[in-house]
Structure formats: C-alpha cells, structure tokens
Amino acid sequence: MTKAKSEILETIDVDVPVRTAYNQWTQFEQFPRFMLGVKSVQQLDDASLLWKIDIGEEKREWTAKITEQTPDKRIAWTSTSGTANAGVVTFHRLADERCRVALQISYTPEGVVESIGDMLGIVRERVVGDLERFKIFIEENGEETGGFRGTIATAH
Fold this sequence. Notes:
Blueprint: E1 6-14, H1 18-25, E2 38-45, E3 48-55, E4 58-70, E5 74-82, E6 85-95, E7 98-107, H2 111-119, H3 122-141
Antiparallel strand pairs: 1-7, 2-3, 3-4, 4-5, 5-6, 6-7
C-alpha cells in the first residue's frame, strides 16, 4: 500500500527587503531559533543538509539536497535519506522594505501518530507558527545573520 503524501502551502509577509529574508533563510543552521521541534540543521556542504527534529517523543533525522537555489528568488530541496520530504521556498518583493515568503512542503506521514496529526492539521499549524516566528526573528534583528549568495542550478 502506497503512503499518501501531504502538501502544505503557506505564505507570510515580512517587513524586510527580499534580499534580507532570502539571506536569512540560507542560514539553515539558525533554523532551530525559530522552528519548533528542529533540534539542529547541519550544513554538510553548499547543497547538503543534515536535519534532526523531535516530533513529540519521536526523533527523526534525514539528509536533504538543495536541488535549486537562485538568490532572492527560491530554494528547492528534496530528502535523500531518512524522512521523505521535499519543498520550495520562494521570495517575492512587495515593496523596497517588504516581501512575501511562500513555503511549500510535500511529505509522507510515518506511522499512526503522524498520520493522525497530519489529518488534524498539526503539521500545517507548525509550519504557520514557524513562518510567524521567522517573521518576528528577522524583523526584530532588522538584518540577516549571514547569507549564501551562490546559485545551485536545477539538474536536468
């Protein structure tokens, strides 16, 4: 039996320039500062990340490969081991000092607890909360903690 995939698409408007929001998002190792349940993200190289998260009492780990990265526009990824997921985050200029961050995630819930949590919208609520915490984090800082301006081209 094939497991059903779930899709989440959420956006948030942030009162910083698109470059600032994008640069901060490239600082993956800072994600635990605003993403609940994310214990660590280790950048292994320009295109590879090791994620460690806690979901209630369960711990999950996976590696992800950045499949596309265009400064100030988008970052796309897919898991290469562990928990199956993929997604893209895009950045849209609304004004000089305001942008929209759109986050789309595709994942496959594992086990009964995750499947029930998914049906109840708990994962979607977590994503919404993470985006809200990102907004607060970057707006309060007023500037990014760093930035990666490299490009990773889509493999064809």
